[in-house]
Amino acid sequence: MAMAATTRTALISAGGAVAMLGLAYASVPLYQVFCQVTGFGGATKRAEAATQVVATDVPIDVRFDANVSPSLGWEFEPVQQKVTLNIGERKMAFYQATNLTDEPITGVATFNVTPDTAGEYFVKVQCFCFDEQTLQPGQSVSMPLTYYIDPAILDDADGSRIEEITLSYTFFPARTDTASTSTTNMGSSSGPS
Question: What is the pLDDT of residues 167-189, one digit of tens each?
């Protein structure tokens, strides 16, 4: 009787530990989905390419920022530092990444939007964030971003006062085996000559 209770307690404890481990692994993707749906913490929303939004005649500035983890060995920068667009107008921007090392390296980008209030209204239609990008030695790629500012920002007491939004990306080394990953070519690329 005591042995059965001990075994049952051990099995329940082991099951709980496995469930917590699974939840820990699932927490990052679930948090990313939560942030994209709610705009929490300056995260942007995602929209389908076919989504149609009526542009306003209210201008807003968008600044583009790029950062790279020192351990990545890449150069990463926006092609254009700042653009002015009308709220609701769909625009495309490009970032340029170059592998400065002599070996293939896989990176992944995270992002944030400031001010945080704007994250809920910054809508990405196409983006390279959270997708692993593998660059061969000396390779450069152009990474596109299609986005718009949701006109609902004008109905938000805090959002309607925003005159400039900054979209910032940071590339980090991905947690994969770069030797077995094929090259991702997001746009035009050039290797070493």
Answer: 999 999 997 544 443 444 444 44
Residues 54, 34: Cα–Cα separation, whole Å: 26
Q: pTM for this one?
A: 0.66
| Per-residue tokens: 95 | 């970032």
For residue range 10-66, list pLDDT tens digits in order: 777 767 666 554 554 444 455 455 545 544 444 444 445 556 778 899 999 999 999
Buried b (16+ CB within 10 A) or exposed e, 116-141: ebbbbbbbbbebbbeeebbbbeebbb
SS3 sequence, the chain? CHHHHHHHHHHHHHHHHHHHHHHHHHHHHHHHHHHHHHCHHHCCEECCCCCCCCCCCCEEEEEEEEEECCCCCEEEEECCCEEEEECCCCEEEEEEEEECCCCCEEEEEEEEEECHHHHHCEEEEECCCCCCEEECCCCEEEEEEEEEECHHHHHCCCHHHCCEEEEEEEEEECCCCHHHCCCCCCCCEECCC
Q: How many CB atoms lie within 10 A of CB 54?
A: 7
Using the Cα atoms of residue 162, residue 78, residue 179 and residue 189 in order, give the sign of their dihedral: positive
CATH number belonging to domain 42-188:
2.60.370.10
